[in-house]
Amino acid sequence: MMKRMFRLLFPLCLIFFIAACAGDGNVASTGEGRGGALTEYYGVADEMPMPKRALQAPVADVKQSGEAINNLDVVDPKIIREGGVTFQTPDLKQTRTFFDSLIQRYKAYVVNDDQYKFDDRIEQRLVIRVPADGFDALVGELERNVERFDSRTISARDVTEEFLDVSLRIQIKKETEKRYRDILTRAKTVKDILEVERYLGRIRTEIESLEGRLKYLENRISFSTLTVTFYELKPEAVGFSSQFSVALKNGWNNFMLFILWGVSLWPFIIAGLVLLLILFVIARRRKRAG
Predict the structure, then answer these.
(1) Contact present, 83 and 225 (Cβ < 8 Å)
(2) How far apart are CA 17 and CA 5, in angstroms?
(3) I want to staple 134 with a disulfide (CB 3.0 to 4.6 A). Which of 66, 106, 147, 163 is the partner?
(4) pTM here?
(5) Which pLDDT score, from 0 to 100, does residue 7 have?
(6) How many Å apart are CA 128 and CA 83, to the nearest integer?
(7) What does the mean pLDDT of the chain come to?
(8) Handedness of CA 194, 199, 202, 203 (dihedral sign)
(9) Distances in whole angstroms, Cα of residue 137 to Cα of each of 104, 130, 141, 149
(10) Taking 60 as the threshold, does the pLDDT of residue 69 lie above it?
(11) Dist CA 134 CA 89 (whole Å)
């Protein structure tokens, strides 16, 4: 009886065993195939995943982003120079005429031109953009023609690292955009086309933003900025008595501003007085109770 059951069950077990082994082999083979397909169709994985296997890009394209680093030319240091000067002048109009001649001679241009009138003086403020190679010469000529500066500041900021970083990012983004456009020509369904176009729109937005930043840096590097402030004292403000009266008037104005500031805080002042009164009453009652 046992031998007969064994003869019946043994072939069934053997069949199940062979089927199980075949199934494991198919699963392993399928996993390997998927991995290979994903490796191929994530052709631009450095940016974002691709939508379909049918839209696979050449694997060699992935290396182009790394090679872009070696394609950048060695650039000169990128320096942004800025300066500011303040001085007194005996004749405001004559000084402005002098600056107009400087601006024309050094091919500069005026960004801002403001004039302010105070109690004791009239002040002119110019913001000038001058080509970087003429900045030192313009400042030097200004120093030779001004007797004394109230203040003078010159600064230089090295933006070479940022300039190279933005340039490299633009180059990599453009290479990625080129690969996506190549993939778009091989898209077969409307869904694939719309998805790739969505990726292209995102990359194009990033490229335009980076290009805007690069243009800003190039402009600031090519043209240095000089802020010039010069003023002429009013005739009535030159003598001691006039200066004393102006100082007295300014002091009175400042005092009135202080009073107005204090009045604007009246809710807080009243709250503080009420709080002090309450504390005083409590302290007095405790003293009587003690």
Answers:
(1) yes
(2) 18
(3) 106
(4) 0.58
(5) 57
(6) 10
(7) 78
(8) negative
(9) 14, 10, 6, 17
(10) no
(11) 24
Burial state string for 155-181 with b = 16 or more CB within 10 A and e = fewer than 16: eeeebeeebeebbbbbbbbebbbebbe
> What pLDDT, in 10s, does the model give residues 241-287?
555 666 676 777 787 777 777 777 778 788 888 888 888 888 888 87
Angle between helix axes 62-71 and 160-185 (nearest 10 degrees) is 150
Contact 79, 158 (CB under 8 A): yes
- pLDDT score, position 135: 95
* CA–CA distances in Å: residue 190 to residues 14, 176, 178, 186: 50, 21, 20, 12
**Is 3 buried (19+), middle (13-18) or exposed (0-12) by CB count in 10 A?**
exposed
112 near 104, Cβ under 8 Å? no
Q: What is the pLDDT of residue 223?
A: 96
Distance, first Cα to last Cα, the chain: 110
Structural element, H or E, at residue 79: strand 79-88
Q: What are the tokens at 249? A: 């008037």
Between 245 and 101, name the one with better pLDDT: 101
Residues 181-197: pLDDT tens digits?
A: 999 998 888 998 999 99
Contacts 24+ apart (CB under 8 A), 150-156: 150/86, 150/87, 150/88, 151/84, 151/85, 151/86, 152/83, 152/84, 152/85, 152/86, 153/83, 153/84, 153/85, 154/81, 154/82, 154/83, 155/81, 155/82, 155/83, 156/79, 156/80, 156/81, 156/82
